[in-house]
Amino acid sequence: MLARHLLALMLVSSVAACGALTGCAAQTTDDEEEPFVEGSGDGDGADEIVSERQLNGNELPEKSISLTFDDGPGPRTKELADFLGAEGVQATFFINGKNVPGRQQTIDAIIGRGHLLANHTQNHLQLTKLSADKVVKEVADTDAFIVAAQPNKPSVIRAPFGAWNGNTSRAINATPMKKYVGSVFWDVGGELTANSAADWDCWGKGVSIERCGELYLKEIRSKKRGIVLMHDVHGKSVDMMKKILPTLKAEGYKFVPLLEVPSVKRAIGAAADPANATNDGCSSATLGRTVPENTCVQSRSDQKWHVCLDKEWNAATGPADAKCTGTKHPLP
Questions:
Q1: Backbone torsions φ then ψ of 181, nearest 5 degrees
Q2: Per-position DSSP letters for 82-150, written without gaps between them
Q3: Which residues contact 96 (CB under 8 A, 6 or more apart)?
Q4: Do the Cβ atoms of 11 and 178 come closer than 8 Å?
Q5: Residue 31, pLDDT above cutoff 90
Q6: Which residues pair with 196 in a beta bridge?
Q7: What confidence score (pLDDT) does residue 276 get?
Q8: Structural domains of the chain sorted by starting position, each given as residue range(s) with its CATH number in brackets
Q9: What confidence score (pLDDT) does residue 287 get?
Q10: What is the CA radius of gyration of the chain?
């Protein structure tokens, strides 16, 4: 997407980077293609992914999707932000702070077109393999850019590779970065198969823009709803978005801002509740709050049961599992 709620990390950052965004570096031209780097996207293979930690979009109404873009800003992000804005679509841009210097005009376009800036960390490292101090620095460095450009919006985070665990959330929640809600996962765009796509993997394997777009449409039609993952750092992803958006509109799909996705909205509400101000227990994406040890929750994401043990989610066989000695929360 948190101990003092995975979903609800709440306060104000004191970190500053390049003063404000305006003083970072000369503006770069956004007409060159970003080079493809193997493994540079956010697939779904990290073993740290557990559904009950992650916020997703499976509660959206049918034919409703939320567009999210990772790893930018890139050479053509401004073009994408302008295109989507002109089409009346509000997207979320999960940025890597290292890519911000020299792209002030791009950041201005994202904000000016009504999109949301969100945190994808400074250097796109796997947070679950870093020390607590390094985790916090990765988040805080990018937060400084976001706060300078967008000071009054909720703070939302997506972990690189979707890798997020209890240790990661507790590290962040012990600092002013606890204002963040997340980690936000995705429902569409995580894997390249015969029936689905991951844009970064398409480009690395030579799949055409047309074919990759067809696979995105196929997965969206199959799932009917959800948070869609793409990567604006790749120019081909910008071209693909321009090709598939008219089709999605023609088929009646609605585009939902990320802050209106039920799981995210629930988490933001929980972040504002003082009763959730704890760094103990496990943060539940389903309930939108932190729960005590031995609590069992049936996940909205995959309907599986999970039990909170030693501040971490573990698989449970069901509400009758011997480990479920606390409160049990089945789905309605």
A1: -105, 130
A2: HHHHHTT---EEEE-GGG-TT-HHHHHHHHHTT-EEEE--SS---GGGS-HHHHHHHHHHHHHHHHHH-
A3: 71, 72, 120, 121, 122, 123, 124, 142
A4: yes
A5: no
A6: none
A7: 58
A8: 40-263 (3.20.20.370), 276-329 (no CATH)
A9: 82
A10: 19
Q: What is the pTM of this model?
A: 0.81
Sign of the alpha-carbon dihedral angle for 21, 173, 165, 278: negative
Phi-psi region of 210 (alpha: psi -120 to 50; beta: other; left: phi over 0): alpha
Find how far residue 79's CA is from the centre of its chain. 21
Identify the pLDDT of residue 309: 77
- Give the C-alpha distances (Å, rounded to integers) separating 242 from 129, 174, 248, 315: 36, 41, 11, 41
Please tell me whether residue 41 adopts helix, strand or coil conformation: coil
Q: Nearest CA to 34 among 86, 70, 67, 81?
A: 70
What number is the average pLDDT over the span 131-139? 97
Where does residue 206 fall: left (phi above 0), alpha (psi -120 to 50 degrees), or beta otherwise?
Answer: left
Residue 61, preceding peptide bond in cis (omega within 30° of 0): no
**162 within 8 A of 154, measured Cβ to Cβ:** no
Determine the Cα angle at 55 with ends 331 and 256, to 5°: 100
pLDDT digits (tens, 9 = 90+) for 86-123: 999 999 999 999 999 999 999 999 999 999 999 999 99
